[in-house]
Amino acid sequence: MGFFPPNGGSAIEAALSKKKIFSLAFAVALALVAYFVKIPGLSEAGQVTLAIFAIATVLWVSEAVPLYVTALIIVVLEATWLVGQIAPSGEAITDYKQFLHPFFSSIIALFLGGFAIARAIHKYHLDERIAKAILDRVGTNPRYVLLGMMVTTAVFSMWMSNTATSALMITVALPVLRKIESDDPFRKALMLGIPFAANIGGMGTPIGTPPNAIAIGQLNAAGANIGFGEWMSFAVPIMVLSLILCWILLLAFFKPKTKRFKLEFDVKGKISPKGRFILLMLALAIIGWLTTKIHGIPSAIIALIPATIFFATGILKKDDFNSLGWNILFIMGGGLSLGVAMKVSGLNTFLISQINLEGLPFILTLAIFGLGAALMTTFISNTATANLLVPIVIGFVALGQEMSSYVAPIAVMVALSSSASMLLPVSTPPNAIAYGSGELKVKDMARSGLVVTVSIILITLAFSFLIR
Questions:
Q1: Are the CB atoms for 153 and 165 separated by under 8 Å?
Q2: 21 shares its domain with 111
Q3: Secondary structure, 3-state, 134-203
Q4: Domain co-membership, 89 together with 113
Q5: Domain finish residue from 44, 63, 97
Q6: Helix 228-253 to helix 442-467 angle, to the nearest 10 degrees?
Q7: Are 131 and 245 members of one domain?
Q8: Is residue 347 in some structural domain?
Q9: Residue 377 lies in a domain
Q10: Do 59 and 187 sit in the same domain of this protein?
């Protein structure tokens, strides 16, 4: 759909086009205000970056253009408008390449490799076989069927797109729904358990969901040293506890009437030699990621090794390469590039200096950022939320205040909370997929999702406080 409806276009198309035009105009107007209204204490470069930040915020929230287009707009504005501006050091920003580097940083390479592995798993139907192997063992009790579905979904989401995982597991669940009476609340539990588990599972690994990678990339750029294993050692316990609590809450909200039923799968024959090779490469990659500190090979390179082998051997083809989720990679790159701009211009430091958190207890600071991230993700994408909030958090480092020691847990809190919003169908793609099944009403998701979201944030808060 273009900005202007074609002749004979519907009223809906016209309304959407007007909304896009309004959003674009508002983004430009807000940027001009941010640039021309001088703020005491903010450098020229900071003023320009604030204008770019304003444009990015409006476009990410409104989605007037695709999110990856917003990422390109960011880097173009940085290279043409921010370069030449005076930074807080008193010198002009001259290197435009620093704004391009994030588009193929180690975090982007890590996700690229992860996408290739996930593509191979899906192409050769290994995801269906793994799901069958797990769910065949859960028995016929509805409670354990729900747990098996959620665990399987969460495990897949640790390594694959949670959107693709939700689509797969919803397909697996549909035959089960046909065996459940229409008035049985368990139907809703099953359809909510899959997207909720997909969101929760994405928390577990750096490649599980973009906010994780954004937080790690920004933190490592600020001098932290967070590897694959370090992230998992913190996030997996939170993921497991959140998953168990979510399962218990769903059963409490939607108590099953059905006593027994059996899951069915249409998976025949043995795994092909290519399939076995893919599983071997996945196992080796996971081992490599978890032992990075022993062998010294960066996680990004480990991810690219199986990806390279898959394409070199013909396991994956050109069409597979073209479908690797480049839009997601560009969205992440744009967010990381914006973080670089905020750092070199001093904008993140300035914004943090305007927020008086110095006297607040650590746990309250975490709660503020966690709840803020979850609230934002309710209405905009979790990637956009992380792109907007994490660079601001990084400003604590530059200030050199006591709060700077809290940057890592706060940034991680933002990332995890960005995946914790379960309230609305628009909150995350898995929620939208489940809602699209026609089995749920918005109030079903909102009522249970609110409790699940708050519970996950409380678990993260407690875990962050205990291990800090």
A1: yes
A2: no
A3: HHCCCCCCHHHHHHHHHHHHHHHHHHCCHHHHHHHHHHHHHHHHCCCCCCCCHHHHHHHHHHHHHHHHCC
A4: no
A5: 97
A6: 140
A7: yes
A8: no
A9: no
A10: no
Q: What domain count does the chain have?
A: 2
86: phi then psi, degrees, rounded to nearest 5: -85, 125
**Rounded CA separation 267/274 (Å):** 16
Query: Pick from 297, 322, 347: which residue ends a domain?
Result: 322
Is residue 78 domain-shared with residue 157, that is, in the same domain?
no
Residues 76 and 33 in one domain: yes
pLDDT in tens, the chain (468 residues): 344 444 545 655 565 577 788 889 999 999 999 999 999 888 899 999 999 989 988 887 777 888 788 889 999 999 999 998 888 878 888 888 989 988 888 878 887 888 888 889 888 888 777 767 766 777 778 888 899 889 989 998 888 777 777 877 777 777 677 777 888 888 899 899 999 999 999 899 888 888 888 888 888 877 777 888 888 888 999 999 999 999 999 999 998 887 776 666 666 678 899 999 999 998 898 888 878 778 888 888 988 999 999 999 999 999 999 988 788 788 878 888 887 888 788 887 787 667 666 667 778 888 888 888 888 777 666 777 888 788 878 776 555 544 456 778 888 888 898 888 787 776 777 887 787 777 778 788 888 888 988 888 889 888 877 766
Q: Which residue range(s) make up the domain with 305?
A: 107-322
47 located within any domain: yes
Could you tell me if residue 429 is inside a domain?
A: no
CB atoms within 10 A of CB 398: 18
One domain for residues 235 and 277: yes
